[in-house]
Amino acid sequence: MLVSLNVKNFAIIDNIKLDFKEGMSVLTGETGAGKSLIIDAIGLLFGKRASPDWVRHGENKATIEGVFSGSNPKIKEILGIELGEEDYLVIKREIYSNGKSLCKVNNETVTLSQLAEISEAIGDIHSQFDTQGLFNPKNYLQFLDDEKILALLSEYRKCLKKYQDAESRHRDFVRKQREDNERLDFLKFQLSELERINPSVEEEEDLKARSHYLNNFGTVSENLRAVHSLYEENDLLGKIYESFSLLEKLESFDSKFKEYR
């Protein structure tokens, strides 16, 4: 954050020093009081191009100095600048009436483009039609590679995996429950049919005998036709014995054929 701001010989400003506390600070005043000049001075610390017109009339140079707290590894990456024990970053702009200007960071001279890169790491000025840091493609990889982002991504993936596993188990449970209910309904139906019919042991034996007879109906029919044809031919006695033999075979299929012998 911006801790303090010193402005000297800048436009109509003679010499001012502003100290800022944590939280929001508001600059108020009537039109022409110099609020915009303060914003312009801060903009110069963030890499805005300078103009000799900003040097106060009758002076050789204008000086703007800002003290910022908080470290950012990008600053060391750009210039190899350490903030020191107190963790402060001092940015200074000197604008000369002849059109020249000087940029310093912790007493190290830097270029305007370097200052702009450093300022992106310590803050952002939001105003109408300004391009904010979120829309700067240079910051995209940093956003993606940020350690906190990666940690959040890892945690998100773990939570997503747990959710997907739970959802899969829930689907299996619902499917199994539906199948069990369908099976139960079918068994209830079969039980009700059995209770309605109420079969006895004798009926079961009769049904088995009837099934055996129907399964062999072709053989039964063939033997009955053979018996019938025997009575239509000569040698009746021999045919009777033969018919007894055939009827005896039929008894294995139905006991009622015993009556015909």
Counting copies of identical and different chains, the oligomeric state is: single chain
Largest sheet: 6 strands, antiparallel
Q: What is the CATH superfamily of the largest domain?
A: P-loop containing nucleotide triphosphate hydrolases
Along the chain, the helix and strand elements come as EEHEHEEEHHHHHH
Just name the CATH architecture of the largest domain: 3-Layer(aba) Sandwich
Task: Describe this protein's structure.
- The chain has helices spanning 35-45, 73-79, 112-122, 140-145, 147-197, 201-215, 217-230, 236-250, and strands at residues 2-10, 13-19, 61-69, 88-96, 101-105, 108-109.
- The chain is α+β, with helices and mostly antiparallel strands.
- It folds into 2 domains: 2-145, 3-Layer(aba) Sandwich (Rossmann fold); 201-260, no CATH class.
- β5 (101-105) and β6 form a beta hairpin.
- The chain is rod-shaped.
- The termini are far apart.
Structure characteristics:
261 residues; 8 helices; six-stranded antiparallel sheet; 16% strand
Topology:
Elements: E1 2-10, E2 13-19, H1 35-45, E3 61-69, H2 73-79, E4 88-96, E5 101-105, E6 108-109, H3 112-122, H4 140-145, H5 147-197, H6 201-215, H7 217-230, H8 236-250
Antiparallel strand pairs: 1-2, 1-3, 3-4, 4-5, 5-6
Helix pairs in contact: 2-3, 7-8
